Amino acid sequence: MFDPALSKRHNSSDNRGEHERSVLDTPERHGARASASGGSLEPEGVGTHAREKGSSRGLRMNVSPLDLRQQRFRSGFRGFDKVEVTAFLAAVADDYEQALRETDRLRQDVTRLEALIGEHREHEKNLKATLMTAQKLADDIKANAQEEAHRIIGDAERRSDLLLEKTQARLEDVQREIDGMKLKRRDVETTMESTIQTLRNTLEYIREQEARERDEKILIHRVK
Predict the structure, then answer these.
(1) Cβ density class 95-106: b for 16+ within 10 Å, e for less
(2) Over the stretch 45-96, which tens digit does the pLDDT of each residue have?
(3) CA–centroid distance for 133 within its chain
(4) What are the residue ranges spanned by the domains of the chain?
(5) How far apart are the first and last CA of the chain?
């Protein structure tokens, strides 16, 4: 497995490979390969490529999958060019080692990110639980407040009804007292009117008696 970062070098490596193959794969080289009957194969283009980019131990040859697929080997009387093959394999080994290291780093990054996602999910879970608890607490407070409000309103209504009943009963008692006093006043007025009338009649009777007595005395005096 190769480093995904190698894909960034893919186009430049492919272009360089195509250019070198176009230069190295000349008719003269085809003729050389054709004339070398019975010889072993050597990397075509790798010798120049490796010498230019990988012959020195301090340099690395970037090999892409396309380089590996399109690599050609040229024939030679003495078999493979060991320097070229060794440089090519060293470059492949280096790139493969780098890919393994990058893969391991990416795997560690994935593990770290998964752990981070797990932490975020746990935090989200805790936050949701906290929000649910807060919502339940708010609902309980609201329900208790509504229940307390209903209780207070019910008590106030009952006290108001009781007070109203007492007030109504008191008003009825007062009204009965007023009606009784009105009846008593009428009785007193009637009694007083009757007494006054009796006194008037008695006074009139006394006046008539006194007038008769005077008249009788006058008649007796005249007769004498």
Answers:
(1) beebbeebeeee
(2) 443 343 344 333 333 446 666 665 566 656 566 666 767 777 777 788 788 8
(3) 13
(4) 6-117
(5) 181
